[in-house]
Amino acid sequence: MTKRAMQETTFLILTALAQGPQHGYGIIQDVGRISGQRVALRAGTLYGALERLDADGLIAMDREEIVDGRLRRYYRLTDEGSARLDEEARRLQETAATALQRLGILHPGQHGSGQHGSGQHRPGLAGGAA
Amino acid sequence: MSARLEQRYRRLLRLYPREFRARHADEMIGVLMASAADGQGRPARGDVRDIVRGSLLARLHGPRGGWLFALSAFALAAPLFLVFTDILQVAFPAPVPSQQAFMILVAGHLIVAAAVLAGLRRTALAALAIAAAADYTQWTAFHVLDRGAGTIAFLTIAVFLLEAIALAAADPRAARRREGWQHVVPVLALAVATQLLARPSGNAIAVTGCALALLAVLLPLPLGLGWRASLLLAAACYPLVILAAAIAGPSSRQLPRALGIGPLPAPVAHMVIVIILYLPPLLVLGRAAAQVIRTRRPRGRGGLAA
Known about the structure:
The structure holds two protein chains of two kinds. Chain A is of the alpha+beta class.
């Protein structure tokens, strides 16, 4: 049975929680940081995702705090959540590696200079893998 | 200033289902207010869009099931209801124009119900298509015998279409959950009542009852009402079924004649059926709207914030 690929938002939220329990606003800021400010989560998207992840058992409520009269609920990754994130990260890594490998072969054509340019890129890839 | 912004955000969050709000509204307000700019008076447009989208999704997938769950329950209830109707038709002999088509129809519905329970979406859709074809054959044959059959065929097709949509949109397995059965049982009870008590009035009631019963399954779920609401709605539907049968059923021709107005022309009979069919859902929607308006009006805490 093949599992469906994880949505990017989900992946980023789980990655944010992989460092330790965080509250909603903390997750939003962390996701921004992880994605190089490319993904700006908003409350509706975040809590829709948290609700779903909680129902699926990938995250759980850690603790609650009241800061400046406002409720802060901390969420943490469950064991199942860690396993899913690990699995997904490896899958993405494999796919990305394949993509880079193929680009390494095709890339030289873009420069228009040589047909033998592929050898130039290989060391770089090998270095990355080491 | 910020109290006003918070109030506006809280109003927006009312778009979410009640259970979702009870769990997350305070947290969400915290996040929304933390990301608000200084002196910001009204919700950011991006947040509004995000909340509208999020609340729609929450209603679709809601914890109690939401619309998708309602559709799943419907997908299970509709074929069971139709099987029931078919079996009663044999138990209380009525003209069955085409024996073969009738047997295929019953078998088709049973396969749909079984496939829904097994979570086999494609099998269910195929069996539904076969049942629909058999049904069509049966009613076109019946049309020669009874002119009212056109209306019944029309309503039956609507039920078949809804069932197809439910099968395509929902995860049929969801209907197996306990809550699913809790909503299916009142519907089947309505089916029994309709068939046993109103049998002499003819087949129009069967289909009208079917449509009403399915609404009884559909409506309470997305509105977050429990199975008791389903039961009440089913009970409330029953007199309407009788009324619809009295107006549009085959035996009804005597009623207008007795009043000296002659038989109702077909378009009028159609209209009456449609109005009666839409009355219960409209009442429930009206009730829901009233509830929304009531919660919007500031009460206690809300009054202080303003």
